[in-house]
Amino acid sequence: MTATTPLRHGVDEQYLELIGAGDEWGATDLVLTLWENGADPEQLLLGLIAPAQVRVGELWAANEWSVAREHGATATSERAIAALVARAAPRPTLGRITVACTDGEWHALPPRLLGEVLRLRGWRVDFLGANVPGPHLVTHLHQTGPDVVALSCALPTRLPRAHATLTACQAVGVPVLAGGRGFGADGRHARLLGADGWAATATDAADILDSGWNPPARAPHDDLAHLADEEYTQLVRQRHGIISGVLDRLRDAYPPMRAYDARQADATAEDVTHIVDFLAAALYVDDATVFTDFLTWTAAVLAARGVPASALTVCLDLLSTDLRDFPRAGELLKSGLAELATGISPGQDITRPER
Amino acid sequence: MTGIRNVSTPPPTHLLHAVLDATAEAVLLCDDQGTILLANAAAHRLLPGLLTIREITDDPDSFDRELHGRPLRGRRQPVDDAHDVWTVHDCTDETARLAAIAEERERTAFLVEASRRLSASLHRGRCVRTTVELAAAHLADAAVVVLPPARHRVEWVRAVTGSRFETGVMKERDAESVPGLSEALAGFPPVPSRWLDQTQVPASLLPAGFGEIGALLVTPLPGNGVPAGALILARRAPGAFAESEELQARIFAARAGGAISAAVLYQDQVETTAILQADLLPPDLPHIDGLELAGAYRPAKDAARIGGDFYDAYPRTPSLSPSGTDAETMVVLGDVVGKGPKAAVLAGKVRQTLRALRLLEGRPEPLLRVLNQALMDPRDRTRFVTMVLASMVRDGDGWRVTAASGGHPPPLILRARGGVEAVPARGTLIGVTGPIRVETATVRLGPGDLLLLYSDGLFEARGGVGGRDAYGEDRLADSLASCRDMPAAAVVERLEQLVSDWINGAGHDDIAMLAVRVPPRISENGYHPASFRRAR
């Protein structure tokens, strides 16, 4: 990365305030003014806008900002990013790179930032956006023949679909550079699923690509021997029944639920769905922390909204009964319950935007 | 049972010698010190001048080693306490056979790998790159693919073993100076390498540090009727390519050429499709002063990107009609019967027809009636469409909206102060019957209000807890209500996300949304989002 002028003190608060108000013009104006005064555009993307977006996620998790404000802020940042890169990006001289989110993955801003950083560095970038269906991505690869696909996955629950996408890209001869929290903080899920490479940050990814990264063509492989027990397959097949079953019995097991209105009931259904989906993801990559990290985070988010952690414990107990014949899932639920039993202290870190 | 009889009296010594000499294996009789006491003819031939077996092995029992250019295998057989017999086998033939088999196996493995990798992509650039990478890794020190000339220039792609691939362009004239290249590009049979003079190769063909070319092979890449290009293989070691290597290069070139020309065919068709498809994709929304517009489109078939839902927005346009009224700002969203390309073509026609008709008739209700007439086709009763049309006129700090529906779900309004209302516009399908019923509704959008047009794919999407529950109109209204204060783009994206999570990867109908929002006057923090860029 090029040497940069540090940003003026207080600029980050100013930017956060502007996007929080949905002030598209103000935010764009601020970013462009900084650029015109000599700030490095990559630094503006990764040192100003990206951290502000992390703060947005935290403010939502802490129940300080509404969903609407969170989305408004993100949309505002996107406009500012577009305005900056439209002015600052050079003519592409390097190769071509496709940047995409996994199917079902909506966290488009981090890969978007990567795409724009690459554009600033002279790559030709096709950013396909959020929620890219596998067939659409593969068609795009046939049509444009990029050097690399940068594939983003923010949620571990999208890993099975990310795996399918990864394999499809490699099958048409294009190497995949994986990124995003879903692949694990150290990229271990990316390795497990056979990605050709992994980068922790946009800067790392751009540096890897700049270094002339050209991984050898991968032969098909299979490191997912643990799936042979079919627990993942069965859980996904029975997903709807399991979720409905838990919800039905939750009313008896957790009395406050009887007073829920339709919206609260929907939110609870969503929470139970997430628990089952994260459990499935943990089975898929055979990693208990995928499940326990999610539970810790959810407990904190619920606590911020006045829902006690016991609601989660009850769900896990109900699931344990349902999944008696699933030894691996049973172990995961046990470690989840143990994790919740350690208690959520006040001021618990709820900063990870993992949902 | 017959068999070899034991002979009671041993034959004379000269006969025993003759027997030993007749065997192809070397036979040596040694004493316990390894000194050779007796050797047959083969032993004299394979191991001339040998006095003791210790000269060639320290191992008391066996050896495998090369001697006088021959791979030899020796084994000891004890005879009595003081004597051993060593037999020594000449493995030259076996070794050569094994080497040939290994080579053949490697060649087959290479061609299997090459086929797998070459058939993976339908992109010409990718196929060419794979070709040079494979060739530089397995066939030569450097490989260059030269593509057929276009406008007196030829593109080339090359790879040198162990380094990155490169691309470039040279003049057709320079390409002609490469021995055998013009012929190969014209699809002639490969010129045997021994006829090629590598000193004629232009320096630019290989990278600067490559060094002198020892051997060169130029092979055409056969294509569909016309060659897909030519493959040049270069080696540093002097001497021609062996016949078997030439054959392998030719087989490889045939597969590479096939892959490249299939990709060319695919790219041609993609280009044609892209041109035809351009008008069927959701349009880039125009910039309309005083409105925020955002659309979302998710066709039922993921790979096609086109379907039977459509939306469009038309800014106010000066009048073309004799009556002199301007064509007001208008937004439309509709749903053609069916899915996929066939539906998309009809949707495209409807959009084009509307684009023209609105210049002559700007009022939504008569416009729908005219459109109905235009779409009626007595030969084809299956062409029908539902849609919502809304014309919008500025009204103080907001907009007055006149909406007309042709059998389409009612648009929703998310008010800036909160709450969701349905716009009571109703009507019958367009394109089926002569007379249609259209009820228009007029509403006002104030600052911060948002109008959402959508197709039924949105609330009919099935999923949820049970997997088969429809998303439903109530849930849609509720989701929209949670989007208060969001920019139009964020609203559309949030709804898309909620529905996608609801569906959870299962199939769905086409889904289209168009959100129109009047920018809010003052946001909660006191900023004016639509204010002009402040002066610096």
Explain the overall architecture.
The complex is a heterodimer of chains A (355) and B (536). Chain A has 355 residues and is of the alpha/beta class. In chain A, 58% of the residues lie in helices and 7% in strands. Chain A is built from 15 helices and five strands. Chain A has a five-stranded parallel sheet, with helices on both faces. In chain A, helix 8 links the parallel strand 4 and strand 5. Chain A is globular and about 60 Å long. Chain B is an alpha+beta fold and 536 residues long. Chain B is 30% helix and 26% strand. Chain B is built from twelve helices and 23 strands. A six-stranded antiparallel sheet of chain B has the order 12-13-14-15-19-18, with helices on one face. Chain B has a five-stranded antiparallel sheet with strand order 2-1-5-4-3. In chain B, strand 16 and strand 17 form a beta hairpin. Chain B is elongated. The C terminus of chain B is likely disordered. At the A-B interface, helix 1, helix 2, helix 4, helix 6 and helix 11 of A face helix 4, helix 7, helix 11 and helix 12 of B.
Quick overview of this protein structure:
With 355 residues, chain A is an alpha/beta fold. Chain A contains 15 helices and 5 strands. Chains A and B meet through helix 1, helix 2, helix 4, helix 6 and helix 11 of A and helix 4, helix 7, helix 11 and helix 12 of B.
Secondary-structure-based class of chain A equals alpha/beta
How many helices of chain A? The count is 15
Question: What summary fits the major beta sheet of chain A?
Answer: 5 strands, parallel
Beta-strand proportion of chain A: 5-15%
Give the overall shape of chain A: globular
- Give the CA-based shape of chain B: elongated
Q: Quaternary state, please?
A: heterodimer
Q: Which stretches of chain A are low in confidence, meaning pLDDT under 50 for 5 or more residues running?
A: 345-355
The ordered H/E elements of chain A are HHHHEHEHEHEHEHHHHHHH
**Taking strands numbered 1, 2, ... along the chain, how are they ordered across the largest sheet of chain B?**
12-13-14-15-19-18
Mean pLDDT of chain B: 87
Helix content of chain A: 55-70%
Total strand segments of chain B: 23
Keywords (chain B): Hydrolase
Pfam family, one (chain B): PAS_8
Protein name (chain B): Serine phosphatase RsbU (Regulator of sigma subunit)
Organism (chain B): Catenuloplanes indicus
